[in-house]
């Protein structure tokens, strides 16, 4: 589950948890409009957008597969904070969120080239790193299954909201 889906799930679970302020279906539809989503966007998503705009080879837009990034990419990206319009903390959040998800871990296969901000090769993924990525992907799939089971079982929504918030914050 990517960060976009996690943020959407978190917002949906919050909405289900809170009593509706307006009982009309029209008000609920308005709440989920694209404009409403844009106003309450996840900070990690907002940090990723400038990275995708300025460095499209290193941060491809979905559905393109993610690519392994150069080790130390944060230090390289910090040199472009003004261009990106981000603080160091926002940049760190964006890159860390980008690098911890199923799409990124799927890209981490042994001997795959790691790319710098301009899309040039800057090293390769080692066997140890590839194994770690597989373990992380497996662990996340297990967590996702447990969250879905808790939601289906009923009464567990607050724990799921907390898990989603931690994953997206």
SSE layout:
Blueprint: H1 3-17, H2 25-31, H3 34-39, H4 43-54, H5 73-78, H6 81-84, H7 88-98, H8 102-107, E1 113-115, E2 121-124, H9 127-153, H10 157-168
Antiparallel strand pairs: 1-2
Could you characterize the architecture of this molecule?
The structure is a single chain. The radius of gyration is 18 Å and the shape is flat. The protein has a single domain (3-168), classed as ProQ/FinO domain (Fertility Inhibition Protein O, Chain: A, Domain 1, Orthogonal Bundle). It has a two-stranded antiparallel ribbon. By secondary structure, the protein is mainly α. The chain is built from ten helices and two strands. It has helices spanning 3-17, 25-31, 34-39, 43-54, 73-78, 81-84, 88-98, 102-107, 127-153, 157-168, and strands spanning 113-115, 121-124. The protein is 63% helix and 4% strand. A hairpin with a 5-residue loop joins strand 1 and strand 2.
Provide a quick synopsis of the model.
The protein is mainly alpha-helical.
**Which percent range fits the helix content?**
55-70%
Estimated share of beta-strand residues: under 5%
CATH homologous superfamily designation: ProQ/FinO domain
Q: Count the strands? A: 2
Indicate the CATH class: Mainly Alpha
CATH fold group:
Fertility Inhibition Protein O, Chain: A, Domain 1
Q: What is the name of the CATH architecture?
A: Orthogonal Bundle
Biggest β-sheet: strands ordered side by side in the sheet = 1-2
Round the mean pLDDT to the nearest integer and report it.
Answer: 80
Low-confidence stretches: 22-31
Number of domains: 1
Note the main sheet: 2 strands, antiparallel
